[in-house]
Amino acid sequence: MAAPSGVRTCEDFAEFQELLRVMRTIDDRIVHELNTTLPTASFVGKVDANQTCKELYLSLREAHASREKIIKNCIAQTSNVVKTLREEREKAQDDVALLKQLRQEQTKLKLMQSELNVEEVVNDRSWKVFNERCRIHYKPPKSQ
After folding, report:
1. Which residues in 38-64 are b (16+ Cβ under 10 Å) and which e?
2. Contact assessment for residue 57 and residue 134, using Cβ atoms and an 8 Å cutoff
3. Whether 73 contacts 5, CB under 8 Å
4. How many CA atoms within 13 Å lie on the side-chain side of 71?
5. What stretch or stretches form a coiled coil here (predicted)?
6. Within a 13 Å sphere around the CA of 17, how many CA atoms are in the beta-carbon half?
């Protein structure tokens, strides 16, 4: 799923989370996808399970890579904002509004960093389900 890669997504944490939620649809529906596309013993000859698993593998890999890229990009952008605000804070230590903005950006940065942990759990769960259902039909390259 192609995602908008803009600074606006990183500025608003709620928008950032919504984008990730939409992008995680493939992971949320993997069990359903596997149940509806992989054949049972009685339908083995009617569906190419190898091709189905390969396509699902490529979709998962692409989705995981694009989400990770967006998360890391937003972390980098927010880190730069925090760094800039810290430098400004050193110059104007009495500025309460600046301190408040710095704290907000630091909180947002921590939340974005925690999304990396969430992403790891989501990815692990998806790969586990994929491997359980597709291991006999498709062997992905070792680079996973």
Report:
1. beeeeeeeeeebeebbbebbeebbebb
2. yes
3. yes
4. 23
5. 75-119
6. 11
Q: How far apart are the first and last CA of the chain?
A: 19
Residue 63 CB contacts under 8 Å (≥ 6 apart), including other chains: 1, 23, 24, 26, 27
pTM of the predicted model, to two decimals?
Answer: 0.82
What is the rounded CA–CA span in Å between residue 29 and residue 32?
5
SS3 42: helix
Asked whether the beta carbons of 27 and 123 are under 8 A apart, the reply is yes
CB atoms within 10 A of CB 97: 8
